[in-house]
Amino acid sequence: MNTKIARLEGDTMERLTTIGTAATALFRSGKGLTKHLAVVALILNLGVVARADAKSVKMTFSGTSAPSTINLQQPDTSNDGDNFAGQGTLGSFTVTNVRAIANSPGTSSTCSGANQLFLPELAGAGVFRFHDGSLLEVNLTQGGDCIDLTTGEAHCSLTFQITGGTGRFLHASGVLTMTETVVTVAADALGNPVFFAATGQFAGTISGVASEDFPNRAKE
Questions:
Q1: Global confidence as pTM
Q2: Percentage with pLDDT > 90 across the chain
Q3: 3-class DSSP state of 90
């Protein structure tokens, strides 16, 4: 009898141990799953915040362009400088650009007419100054100028990468596309156009902009 009782007690303890081990594994698995789901939820929430932070931008401008004294040292290029002022999504602003424009024609699917000349833009940068004193910095990544040889008018399309700035743009990022129409105002004694009037717009998206009411918030 005692032997049977001992066997029963041993079987019971073995079953309880097996059940306890399975329960522990299930509990740990549940904790791991809970942590995994929490991480996924956090990532999704951050993604929503990031998307919500992105802001569509549209800014119109006008101003002048002329040969620049800054030399970007790009082979076979001429350096152009822009001075624009405008108004848009982010408020009133001025912007100064320097751009290295190829001297030799390139190819473009949108600028290939008999009287059209396409000049790629190989490098450049710009600084926007807004009404609150904040600066927004951009780098040229691609683009070019389509020149109508009959009228002398040029249509430019350039893409700029936002690299940061100061004040409310300290941590800014995004992409802006500049579309511009340029007409010659003056030529030099040899007949080369050297001074231009320009109008156009910047459009794209920007993220990481602090509230205009607290321009130094990003520095805290």
A1: 0.74
A2: 69
A3: coil
